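Practice problem: predict the structure.
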Amino acid sequence: MKESVSNQAKTLYVKKGEVSYAYRKFGKQSELPLVLFQRFRGTMDHWDPDFLDKLAQTRTVIIFDNSGVARSSGNTPSSVESMAQAASDFIQLLDYPKVDVLGWSLGGFIAQQIALDRPKTINKLIVAGSGPGGVADAPAIPEKVLAVMQKPNSENPMEDFLYLFFTESQASRTAGMQHLGRLGKRDESFGPEANAEAMTAQGAAVMSWAMGKDSAYERLESLSQPILVANGQHDIMIHAYNSFAMAQRAPNAKLVLYPDSGHGFLFQYADEFAKEVNEFLN
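Answer:
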């Protein structure tokens, strides 16, 4: 069996001030790297290696833990704007004049913020399982979903994860279990989870963005970059209507929705979505 390129990548560190950023870099050498931004509570180790390896076949891929999350030191900011500043600091430390970015969920908020505030640093933008915030007519997040999302510990973590990220169909649940089975295969031990302080700060940033207090929705028309917006048709955490609203408002956006899938569509449809991403970036 062929070794996973992403699983073999070593954890590296770069530092700015008091913050030491943990990251991994792998894949085919390319002029522009693709930098990935993670979800609420997510770390580098939560990226599916199968998905990463497919992206890495055609380009340099960089994953990292933002300030205060898991292997990275510092404090986790409680606003998307400050998280975007920290992520921009990390990218500047890598000394690339311009990058492509893929942001999933909370990472999609951060990616949009950077594209709006520092447009010259972003070549192309991929927003997955996310939204611009402040979409007034978007369906609200169900109370049960909020309760499961915020559990500090779970008696049945697999079922909670499948509930949040996949649909109730057997095909989607099976894909979810296969995704979980691909994690934790690195030579290094599975890294630390996001701690309580990071979760609290991220939660505050997510809610403020969703309610439109510091969202991107009103500014989307100024985005000049080509944008790929993607989601599962049945995402119960960030409803697919948010993706539709973003693609309508941003001038250079393409929308792709995947059937019988939710927030974890990018791992359920790893082959199809990686192909879509690579064709978009090429």
